Structures are given as C-alpha cells and as structure tokens.
Fold each of these.
Amino acid sequence: MGAAQTSPEGLGAASPIDRHAFSVLAVTRRRNGHTQDQAGHIMDIPVAISARHVHLRQDTVERLFGPGYQLHARTPLSQPGQYSAVETVTLVGPHGRLEHVRVLGPPRVADQVEISRSDEIHLGLDGPVRLSGDLAGTPGIELEGPFGRVSLSQGVVCAARHIHMSPQDAQAFGVRDRDVVDVAIGGTGRDVVFGDVVIRVAPNSQLELHLDTDEGNAAGVHPGMTGYVVARNRE
Amino acid sequence: MGAAQTSPEGLGAASPIDRHAFSVLAVTRRRNGHTQDQAGHIMDIPVAISARHVHLRQDTVERLFGPGYQLHARTPLSQPGQYSAVETVTLVGPHGRLEHVRVLGPPRVADQVEISRSDEIHLGLDGPVRLSGDLAGTPGIELEGPFGRVSLSQGVVCAARHIHMSPQDAQAFGVRDRDVVDVAIGGTGRDVVFGDVVIRVAPNSQLELHLDTDEGNAAGVHPGMTGYVVARNRE
C-alpha cells in the first residue's frame, strides 16, 4: 500500500516520531492534479469556504425587511436551489457587532446563524460546532435589518465541516451519510489534514467540502482548490 | 510499524481511500495522556494560541505612547523574558480597524504586527505567512496609540505555525532548527493534523506549539491541550 511512497527518509531507528504516520501530508504533496479511483473516476473534492451567513424563516424575513418582503436571489450556490440573497443583516452579540452578513435563500423552517469561532469570540457568544439544522441548546442572538430587529432565542452555530455528495458519489467513495472522514489539503504552505469531516448525502448534491473561514484560513485555501479523502472512521 | 493499530476496518479491497493514511488521527485519538519516547521522556507538546499582537521598536513605543515612554509588563509569556504589556494599540487597515491589540515586550529591533488571516480580511490586508522577523516585502499598516499615530511601511505577517524548543528538546524529538514537522491535535471534535509546522530551537526555549487564532479555532483547541509530532519532513 504505497510503502515506497512513504519511506520515512532520514529517520533513525531510535526516532520517537511515529513512522507509520509519516506519510499523510507527504502523499498529498506528491499528488498532482486529480486523484482517481480504480474505475478512473476523479476522487478529488472541490473545497468551498462558507463565510458567515444566516438562514431565515419567512416571518423573520418580514420582521427584518418589512411585511410581505421576499428575498432577492443574487448568486446561485453550488447546492441546487440555494442562493446567496441581495439582503444582508447585522448580528448583534453581547460584546460586538458584525455588519453586512449575507442572507442565504430560500427561507427555511428555522432561523440559523452560521459563523466562525473567530466571529463568536468577536460577538461574545459560545455557539457549538453543529451540523446544519441541529439547533437544540444553541445560543440566541439579535438580528438587525432595515425594517426591524429580531431576537432569536437559539440558532447560532459554528458549522461542522462536511462534504456534500450525491448517492452516486457516496458509492464511489465507499461512504454513507453521516460517516466521518479525514480530508487532506496540501500544497498551500499551510497543509492540513482535517478530521471530523461529516459526509452529507442527498440527491443532486454537488460534491464539495465546506469549511468555515477559520478552517479555510488555517489551511491556506484559495479558490479552485481541491482536497482528498485520506481516511474513513466509523467509531 | 503499528499495523495492528491502524487496521482500516470496514474498507473493502476496492476502496479508493488510501489505506496507509488511515491512521494518523485514529492513532491520535487512541493516545490518552502523554506520549513518551523510548527513554520515557514526555513527547507531547503544549499548544498555545497567539492572539493578534504587535512587537514594537522603542522609538515606535514613544511615538505611540509619548516621549520616553516605557512599556509596562502585565503577564510573563512562556518564552523567557517575553511579556504581554499593559499597553494596547489600534490597527487601522484599508477596510477596517481592530482595537485593543496587545503589545508584547520587550521592544525589538523591528516593528511587527502578527494577525490571523481572518484579521487580515477584516482589515483589508494581504500579509504573507512568515516566521517572526522575516519581514521583507510584507505590507505596512497604521498604528494608533493614545499619544500618536505611526504608519509602518512593512511588518504585517500571518505567523507561520511553529514549535519553540530547547536544544535538549530538539535532540529528544530528533529534529533541528528550521525542520518542518506535522503535528496532530485530537479529541476536540475538530481533530486536525497541521503540516508545515516549523521547529524553532533556542537556548532556554519553553516547549510549545504556537498557532494563530484561525488555526486554534479550526482545531477546537482549548487551554491546556497538547499536540504531538506525527511526522518530520525534510524536502
């Protein structure tokens, strides 16, 4: 299994460094272009950085922007039917504010504020790392729009890193919905292997790794990059 | 070589996932408490998060805080002789400001502003990932103090992640100054292996991995955590 690729050159016999683990980032660095499976399918995963954003209920949209207000689509997102809206809101936390925070559409059944841990520290909040929609026990926050202000009783999360994929992709990768994998991103000068990456399988999903801004920055990610799955963990 | 520890359970023979690479984070998760070398030395590395800060020349201190002004030590840092000062400054970039940014002492021969990539985006700057002191070609920034304002022509960096260690530690780890290693941090729910971690060896240095806030957040680091070196890369 690639022992020749991962020879720990220069490590003496008594070295306390784990020889087995030598290879992950080294292997990533050696891979140029696409990784392919045995059938020739491309296995690299496009990486997308999710900047801070909010999902809103329709009634919350109206309380922030006015009665009967409808969001205006600005840019389609990679996941089908989703869009970045023209509208933005201001987040008001106990210790700070963040303005011009993008609203994503269409409206949902629950308000959700997805921010990075850096944002949480700026705002003075302690929202947990969660998958989208898993909002029980999360902190609330104040939202300000041009028409009004809304106090959410919950909904602030730091999005758990995840990979969107279709059932066909899941079969190709040999994974199932909710599996947890490790993903390597190399060649940036800030190479990283991210553990705790959750697989999200849904029909028509576009294959994409979603990181928050802290994670993207920690890995030196730039537009158009790809990562690749290095390990699957079922615990 | 730990093959039994890293059995890729559940992966079929045709799986495209790299079996060799399965182990890094899994091994990290299995290690409870301290890693030891063959002589019984503790090999875990305490992790410290460097929040945004500035190092200043004495003349810059005086231009910001007043003629003859001396920094006041507030808290000693883990590296001998270094301290967090009572004084703070405001960073003013093309697109934003950051207030209450800590000054570290004692004064140095060059002004240096160490911020995260998230901070750079907020300020509207594009400073490179660099080791401390490697300032050629870095962007400048405006600093505001209670007495005056200083325009730096260079000095803004995103600190390259690094491990401070003594010559004795370097011998124990089997590494040299400027070596680059991979460091795993596990058990946080946001497990990460950081590549591109630079070894900095100096007499009396306290063993410590320094991450910036983006990196600490991406790994879910909390106070008192340790990481461990999983691989050494000499390229």
Note: Chain B touches chain A through 64 residues (CB under 8 Å).
Amino acid sequence: MIVNMSPEATEEQIQHVIERIKECGFQAHVIRGAERTVIGAVGKEGRRGELEALQAAPGVAALVPISQPFKLVGRELRSERTVIDVGGVKIGDGHWVIIAGPCSVESREQLMEAARGVQRAGAHMLRGGAYKPRTSPYDFQGLGVEALGFLREAREETGLPIVTEVMGTEDVSLVCEYADMLQVGARNMQNFPLLRRLAKVDRPVLLKRGPSATVKEWLLAAEYLLSGGNPNVVLCERGIKTFEAELRNTLDLAAIALAKELSHLPVVADPSHGTGRRSVIPSMCRAAIAAGADGLMVEVHPCPERALSDGPQSLDLPAFAKLMRELERPMTTRAGVMV
Amino acid sequence: MIVNMSPEATEEQIQHVIERIKECGFQAHVIRGAERTVIGAVGKEGRRGELEALQAAPGVAALVPISQPFKLVGRELRSERTVIDVGGVKIGDGHWVIIAGPCSVESREQLMEAARGVQRAGAHMLRGGAYKPRTSPYDFQGLGVEALGFLREAREETGLPIVTEVMGTEDVSLVCEYADMLQVGARNMQNFPLLRRLAKVDRPVLLKRGPSATVKEWLLAAEYLLSGGNPNVVLCERGIKTFEAELRNTLDLAAIALAKELSHLPVVADPSHGTGRRSVIPSMCRAAIAAGADGLMVEVHPCPERALSDGPQSLDLPAFAKLMRELERPMTTRAGVMV
Amino acid sequence: MIVNMSPEATEEQIQHVIERIKECGFQAHVIRGAERTVIGAVGKEGRRGELEALQAAPGVAALVPISQPFKLVGRELRSERTVIDVGGVKIGDGHWVIIAGPCSVESREQLMEAARGVQRAGAHMLRGGAYKPRTSPYDFQGLGVEALGFLREAREETGLPIVTEVMGTEDVSLVCEYADMLQVGARNMQNFPLLRRLAKVDRPVLLKRGPSATVKEWLLAAEYLLSGGNPNVVLCERGIKTFEAELRNTLDLAAIALAKELSHLPVVADPSHGTGRRSVIPSMCRAAIAAGADGLMVEVHPCPERALSDGPQSLDLPAFAKLMRELERPMTTRAGVMV
Amino acid sequence: MIVNMSPEATEEQIQHVIERIKECGFQAHVIRGAERTVIGAVGKEGRRGELEALQAAPGVAALVPISQPFKLVGRELRSERTVIDVGGVKIGDGHWVIIAGPCSVESREQLMEAARGVQRAGAHMLRGGAYKPRTSPYDFQGLGVEALGFLREAREETGLPIVTEVMGTEDVSLVCEYADMLQVGARNMQNFPLLRRLAKVDRPVLLKRGPSATVKEWLLAAEYLLSGGNPNVVLCERGIKTFEAELRNTLDLAAIALAKELSHLPVVADPSHGTGRRSVIPSMCRAAIAAGADGLMVEVHPCPERALSDGPQSLDLPAFAKLMRELERPMTTRAGVMV
C-alpha cells in the first residue's frame, strides 16, 4: 500500500501516518518529493484491513493499493489452469462446453422437449430455472421444487448434467439433491451469505458476473467460494449494464480474456442474457469462443413467444441446431477476405 | 401494452399477434400507419406476464409498456403520504429524521461512545452494522450477534431506536429481536428471498437503492415488501455507480424527488455512502434536505482513521455536532447572494 | 508518479525503469517490498509525458499518478475564489446568478416574450441557443445569425447580459460580437480546437461538463482555456448519463461541491438538462443552491409544448416566476420537521 | 409516434393533443384503455420535430417513438451492403481490412519504421495521428502538418493508403490533401459542424463511436454525413466507457453485430483503444472478426515504452507480425474442444 500525503500535510501528520503503519505491522518507507510525500507500507505480515482506515487520517490525500486483493483465484499461487468436472463433463483448459436449455422450467413437457432438442443438437449440459429472480413480484417466479423434479427426469433421459440457479441459503440443500452444478445469478454475485453457504457444498458453482461488477469484484466473489472451501468454480460473463438501449446488456468479451489472464478458473459466456436480442446471439457465440471462453450458455425454448421469461433472447430448437452446426465450422480470414 | 410491429411484418404475423393478445385476456386495437402497424393491448383483466413473451413473436419489433409496473407503492391507489413509526420516531410527510452512527459496530466502547455522541448532537435514531457485506472475504465481516447486544444496550441507554442491516433470511428472526428497523443493503435490493421474508415481519424496513438500479427497479423491490404484507418501508438513496472516480458513488438527489413523485413512501438520503468523501458530506446533507428527503443517514465514528470499515466517509463526533448545528440554520438566497 | 512493478519483474527490468526515470529528468526512489518493488519518480523538472509511456515497459504492472494533472484551475496556486464579470453581472465567491431563457431562439416574438418574462421574475442573465447541437440531422438546428440579432435586441431592451452556445471555431468571432458569455456545450467539452480558440477571446466562457466526463476531465478542459490565456471560466454541471431511464440525465450535485473543493472557478448548475423533467426542476434548483452552486441556469419557454427543442424540461413563465419566489424564501429544518 | 396520456388526463387534454397532432400534419388514432388513453400519430407527411414538443403538453405522460430516426444509413431504403474504396483498398461486404500504425506520428523515423513493419506483416492501410485530442493541455498534441508530410512519404514508399484524424473544420482542406480517409475521433462523434463539413469532401470518413454513445446516436452521426452528401462512411467501434477499471474501455462487439443489422455501412473494430491493454488485444481481434467486423484498426509502435501517447495499448512490430499470422489460421471448435 502507498499512502499519498496531500501537499499541505504537516511533518507531524507524516510522522503520525508512519507510526500507524508500524502499528498495523508494516514497515514504512518514505519518499519525499518536491511537492508531496508518499509513504510505502511494506511487509507480508501486516494487517491490511486496519491500514485502509488511514485514508481518514489527517493529511492523507489517498491510499493506493499495489497488490491484487484476491489470492486463491489468482494465478500467482497456482499457475496451471483449473478444470471443473460437472457430472462427468469437463470445463476449462481446453475442455469446452455448451450449456443450453430454457430460461425457466415452465412445465414437464416444455422442459423435456427442450432437453431432447438441445441434446440432439450437441449440447453438453442442460440449464433451466426452478427459482427465478424477477424484478417485479407480479412476474412468474418459477415452479420451485416441482421444476427440480423435471430437471432430474430430463437428466435421466438425456444424460445431460443439470445446472440451475439457487437464490437463497434456505434452498441450497434441496437444490444440491437435484443439480450437478449450482448457479449464482448475477444479482446475487455479492450475496455473501449465499456465497459462504455454497463454499461448503460438494457441487461446482457457476458464478455469474454482476451486471455492474468489475472483474476484480467478480474474482473477489469467487474468492469467497475458494477461501471457504469450494475450489470448483466456473465464472460466467453475462453482460454488463451500459447506456446501449437496443440491447439488454453489453456482453463484455474482453472481461473473459482479462479474467483468464488474472485467474486460473474457467470462464464461460452467456450471450443470451449478454445481449437480450436473438438476432445477434450467433455472432456473439462465435466471438466469445474467439475471445477464449471455455464454453457457452445459451437459452433455448421450444416456443419463445410463449416463454414465461426471456422469450426475446431465446433461440428456438431449429435456430439452436443451426448455431451448433455453424460453431463446428472453422472461422478464418484469408488474403483480407473473411471466408 | 403497445406492440410495435416491424415495417416488414406480414398480415399473417399481425393477425397472429392480435390472436395472442386476445388469448392473454386483452382486447386488441390496431393502428395501421404509413410504414408500420402498432397494436394496443387494452384491458384490466389480461395476463400481462404472458403478453410480454410476444416480443419474441415473428414480425414484432418491440413491446412498449404504457403503465407503471408497480401498484401498491404508487400514488395512484394511495394519495396520502405514508408515515412510518420506528420505535416512536416518525418518518415521512413532514416528519424528518437524522439517523447516525458507525458503519460497523466494532466494540462495546466504540458503539457506546458513538451512540452518546450522536444523541447529544440531536440524532433521532442510531445506525450500526452487525453483519457487514464486504467485497473481499478477507475484510472485517462484522461482530454479528455480539454487535446486536451492544446495539440493544445503546438503545437502552440513549433511547434511540436502532436500525441495522440484515443480510440473509437466516438472520431475520434474530435481528428482529434487537432492531427497530431492518436495513436491506444496496447489494441486496434485488435479493428476492430476503425481500419475501421481510414482507412477513412486523418491523419497518429501510430499503437501500441498488448502486445501478433505476428508480422503477427500486420501487418494484419495495413492491415485493408491500405486496407480501409489510407496508412499513422507508426508501434510502445511497448513491449510484458512475464514472466519477474521485467519489465512491454519485448521490442521485433527483431520484429522491422522482421517488416521492411516483410513490407515497418516505425517502431518506445517505450522503456518507452516496459520496464516500467526508469533505462533501455536509453540503450533500443540505442538498438532500432541499431536494425533499425525509431524513438523512450519516456515518459517524469516534475515530474514523481507526474504523474497520468506511473510515474515509465517516464524520467524527465534533464534525457531526457541527453539521447538526448547521442544519438548524435556515438556508436562503437573497438579492442574488447566498447568505 | 509511482511505478508499480509486477511481482515477476526481474532486477534487469527494475534497473531499466530506474534509468528511464532518470532519462525523463526525475530522481528514482526504490521501495522493495516482500512481493514487489515500487519506484517513485520525484522531481519538479521532469518530463511527465515521457514518463507515462513507461507503463508499456517490460515488468511494469501500473503507473500511479500522485499529483493532480491540472495546475491553473486548481487551488494550490490560487487560494482566493475567482469572480467572473459578465456584462456587469458577477458570478462566484458569494455572487450568485440566475440565467434563464429558452433552449433555442425560435423567433423574435418567442425570445422577447421569454426575455421580458425572466427579467420580470428576477433573472440576472438571458440564455438562448442560436446554434443547436442536435442528435439527428433532421431536427431543428437553430436560426444562427438571425437568432444572434434577436438576442442582442433582447439585451438592449431588458439589460440582461447574453449567454449563447458557440459550436465551432468558425463561429467564434461572430458570436463574440453578440454575446456577453460564450457557452461550450456538453458534447464539446473535449473539442480541443474550440477550447484553444476560446482561450484567445476576451469573453468569459461557460464550460458545460460532458455527460460522461469525470470532474478531473472537466477541470482539464478548463485548463485548456486558462493555460491558453482566458482566465474567465464558469463551470456548469448539467447532468451525467446514468442508467436512470425516467430522467434524461442525473444531476451530479456532489460534483459541484467537489469542483469547488478542487478549483477556484465558479460553478453553476443546469437542472433543466440535468433532469429533463419539469416536475423535479424546482427541488433540484433548491438542492443545487444548498450544494454550493454559484448560480442556476434554467430553461424557460413561453409555450413549452410548442418548443422546437427541450420542451419537456422547460418551465413556462408562471412556473419560473413561482420558482423565483420560492428561492427567495429560507429553507430550514427545525426539531426534526422541515418547514 | 405514440402519445401515452397519464391516467389523470382530462378529456379536454386528450382533445388538445388530438388537435395538435393534426396541426403537425398527422392523423390521430385514439385507443381508450381501462386506465389510460394512448393516441397514435400516423402519417408520412407530418412534422415529427414539432410533434416531439407534445411531451410538454398537459396530461401527457410520455411520447413513444415507433420508427427508427435514421433514414439513409438504415437498411430499409438500401438492402445491399455498402463497399467503401479507400485509395484502392475496399472495405465491407466481404472485403476485410487491417489498418495499423502508431497512435501519433512522432518523427519521420518512427513513422517509416512502423509503416514498413506493418506493411511487411500484411496490413492494408496505415494509421497515424497528426493532430491528437488529449485530455490535458500539457500532453503531446501531435506534430500537425509536419506529420501529414511524413504520412504522405510513408504512403509513397509502402503503397498503403493513409487514415488520419481531423479534429476541426479548419483543418479539413489541409488533411484532405494528404489523407485517403479522414477519421472522426470518438470525442468528436457529435461535433456537428465537423460532420457537416466532412459531408462535403470527396474522401471517405472513418467515424468512431463516442465512448458513451448508443448505436442509434452513432448511426445518426453517420446520417449527418450521408444526408449532407458523403455516402462513404466506415463505422469504427472503439470501446465504450464502463465501470471496469482494469481496462481503458469496454469493446462492445455486439454493437458491431447490431450496427450491421441496422445499417448497410461497413464496421471495423479498434481493439487497441477498445481495451487499452496489450495482453488482451490479440484475443479481441479474433473476437471482433468472429462478431462480423469488416476490419481491424490496431495501434503498432516500434518502441511502445517510448511512445508519446497510448504506449500501453500499442503492439510492437514482432507482436503485430505474430498477430497477423494468427489471424490467418482458422479458428474452430470440434467435439467440445477448441483447437
């Protein structure tokens, strides 16, 4: 940590900061410049949390952190890439997955039709919401445990492992009985009691990035899971809020490249939530792969115009099958012309 | 709801939308323009949720909602302003409160000193965090139930009602035993299981606006509480995320005016989180009052530079006492000169 | 400047950075920590621009600036507050102004009616656009020089000094003949050729903050004017882009407090553009005053529903007169009840 | 346009709106719902600009536009894709380009070394800034006309057409003498006098998206060029401002897909400005191609750590050559493993 003193800081204030740095267990290195003084707090053993309060000390202009705040998710302590096994399907380090299925489980028929269709088209895992976070209390909130039963049935028939969202700590045990991977929704990325609870389960967790979270905040949310005891985390970029009104969110593909640079965890992309607009989903799927994503999560509904949630961003089964065929084909540019 | 058909929509697609509107329980009114057709869905009895999926129907360019999505928090059904009673202190409709205290309860001594100080200066309620949502798992997470005990003790001595954050459903019963008002933190504004649980308690709820939430999303979060059975909600504007790097958040005072225009609920401002910078807090307190806030929530710490959280935005006791004296004085402009 | 080396930086890379710092005319102070090394570049005479390229040197994690990038607009070199004289009307350091008038000058009649009305109500200056920046080429683009003539006539009749926008360098000389203060619109805050040109005129400049600009970027835009030779700059906060959809912009009142903390220049608020919603303009005017603004800029139109631009955010003349009467009255809170 | 009346609107107010719609040259279609009335304004001949002021009429809740505001850049009037010829290099509709070169032209030697290097690696056009928009007046502002001379010389030697930024109307004639394509920088996307001037030149224009502009605003800026007489416009996505602090901007690849869906103009991507971080540029180049970009614009500098601007986001010549080789190779996914 660097403490940047204000130009008007007195010698007494500088000495006070030096003493407080030592009190927190660090060494203090002072650089006296022409206009101002900066003080470096150095050491591995100090109490960083206490140090941060120094920003409130008299004469301090700003505190500048110089190391990354996350440890276990970072690549400094672990150089090899993590591979997560979800019911036999591997994700990460070259293992690449397609997760597909409806936004919400709406009925046994709807789910089974979707499950069979996405399996036939080549998906590796099935998604489907049993508990739905909805902005309005008057919107469809999910079928709950009934939907979990349908998901289990779909797995039995298709063999596809299941990922579904868990919204609160009270549902964790129940959802663990049915799902192969538990999803933390974007709104819950910083639901710390939920993260602490999921750190104790033996299921992998799909951690969606919050719509306004930075990559660091996302990695720190993952750090709650790893430091609490669950090393099996898949990150999922699902778009961030921006000013663009024509699209629901802005899919931040550079965040995938950045997250993979900073962390050893696998990262998948969700172009369905990430754009909210069916017409651009195929090209964003291709772009996410090109950006280095370890997989895709795609919303597929047998009849999007009757979906109880997220219809406009759902592909129907023929469109999904077409997308899957396209993803098999190589993308190339040659002699300045893309072919 | 208005369904805006794309210019290329076929007559068959238009007819399909008309039929689906009727299927959802609405009447369909068609306006055929020079370039495109729009269809209004009219009626009180229709199923709006099902209608929304029509955005995915062929030939539909966009759906345009024309009524507000919230009901109970709105002013259409309730014209008088709501007054909330928190342990004898009234908020709203001219009843105006100052809530003050430390970000976190750090020790019995720290809390009692803060409580006595803010009471002496004229505060009406005491705040203090027992459970703290922190971005990093390595930061101070609050003293939990021990802190709740200290808060109770502080109320007994000072008489100030207590507001404290509840972070998860599992803590709601416990926190209700100690607190006069339960705070939903900004990160939890859309934690729907928590909102549904708090709809069932007999304590008022202070609902902070999410850092990237629109005013409508905030009011819909409140609608979860009212529609679930708890009419005692105080809204709290605490700043939104913007690009401004010098301030932690941007205190959105127009959102206070707007929330009071759209809703009958009282709205308080939190300039401490809303700016994160001690130097601008007094002027933002004055501005929030001028904007029509029903009260202020201010972080006060006996020694900010030793605070375990949010020191830089905490006032010390003399600064808080000075602020309280200033708030008593009239603000005026006369002959073009502010005095 | 602090150079933060990455944990993997080699000794050779550290030495290279030290040499480059010296080459740029600074002294290098090295702090070797447990995990990484940071190097301070110290000195008044160094070439900061060249130093910044070091971020691209091998082994460098990040560069951390420790001093403010602006000089002449800052308070370090000038402790007293600046007062700007606009055709006899003073702004700043206790001199407080109301600037009012239509968004666009639409006709001689419209302008004269507005001018008489705002003068009668107590405004100190008249605004009115002759050249209008419009998102669409098909929208009304302003009457140009004809409007400038009407503005001059309005000043002759009412005595109110005129402020009007200049959009490009080619219009500067002409607008200077008619206007008492030249406005740089929000979209032009970083139109550097325009700023350089306005640095050479003998008219004060009203510099609007860009809708996505930070306060520092705004002050650096003002620095172009001061460093180029024009010390007469009034800053104008006019709202920033945020996710809030009900309001056109988010009026950032803390930015006013912050700009006045960092700079000696006067700062006025434009709640009309800052909110885009007539109903909240009066409360935002009061809030801006309470936040410390040196004045207000308010859009007033004799018939807002026929305005060729910005009707929804324009007050009509009776509403403006009512606002002016309200601003004369003291605002106060007493015994917890605002009166 | 749909006029959404508020629930409290009186019959008189409804009639007034109907009359005003007719006055503006449209027909009025009224839909009376259970709670509120909406009125459609229909017709091709009406004056839309006047209609918009109706938002300020009594009883009006909101105006809802139902058609796209742009005409000439849209695909409704022109179904085939536009191909732009820049000094013999074609862009669009399958013609795909790499534009490379330094951010700023810093010297004859630096430019020639960069030009030869990017040509050798396979670039089709050369970029280089002669006039630089810089946030601070104390930063390097470009060599101006001297740089233009170097660019011409580089073209003569390498045969690569030149694109360079023009910052103000006063420089347009001069830059046209030297450049094959004129760049409008992101800060100038809504510099309307500049756009109007560039509508009159016989050079293609590269129009960068503003860092906070929506896709519609970007297309409307292009509409200024087309409607003013210049049909040769290449759009360039260069990243938008978001909360992500680790990256300079967020490259919005879905905006490329969306712009190509809404417009017939070619769209290129600038991953250098779009991310500001060298390590993620190659993957963002691949992703941009996969998203459907018609080309890439990449900053290349012979020695990034000595660059006078944008060093951290510049590739050196070997890194650029490596990128070019990678772009030649097909990208594919097969059997769930990306190869």
Note: Residues 333 and 339 of chain B are 6 Å apart (CA to CA).
